Amino acid sequence: MVQAFMADVIFPNKHEDEQYKYTDDSHLLISETYVGISVEVFESDVFRSDIPCRFKIVPETVEYLIDNIDRTLQQSIEIEEKLSIDLIENLFEI
């Protein structure tokens, strides 16, 4: 804007970024940032045997989830997935 003012331009052209970005071989880019395969895998909850990973399971937490399975499922379905619990036909089988 300062440069436009100094050049006596009243309404400078607004710069708009392209809506979609493509790779050199014309594939659509979902994300322009590369975080690394291991971070990307962990963020997507996909775990591979060739990437070293250590899990620590807390037995008390597992027991709490089992004891409160109805509430746990309700939160997972209604809050995280944004679905009505009435839509789940086989809820008791789960």
TrEMBL record:
Top EC class for this record: transferase
Record-listed E.C. numbers: 2.7.7.7
Subcellular location: Nucleus
Catalytic activity, as annotated: DNA(n) + a 2'-deoxyribonucleoside 5'-triphosphate = DNA(n+1) + diphosphate
Main location: nucleus
InterPro entries, per the entry: POL2
The keyword Amino-acid biosynthesis belongs to this UniProt entry's keyword annotation: no
Entry keyword annotation includes Metal-binding: yes
Signal peptide boundaries: none
Protein task: DNA polymerase II participates in chromosomal DNA replication.
Protein name per the record: DNA polymerase epsilon catalytic subunit
Species assigned in the record: Rotaria sordida
Lineage: Eukaryota, Metazoa, Spiralia, Gnathifera, Rotifera
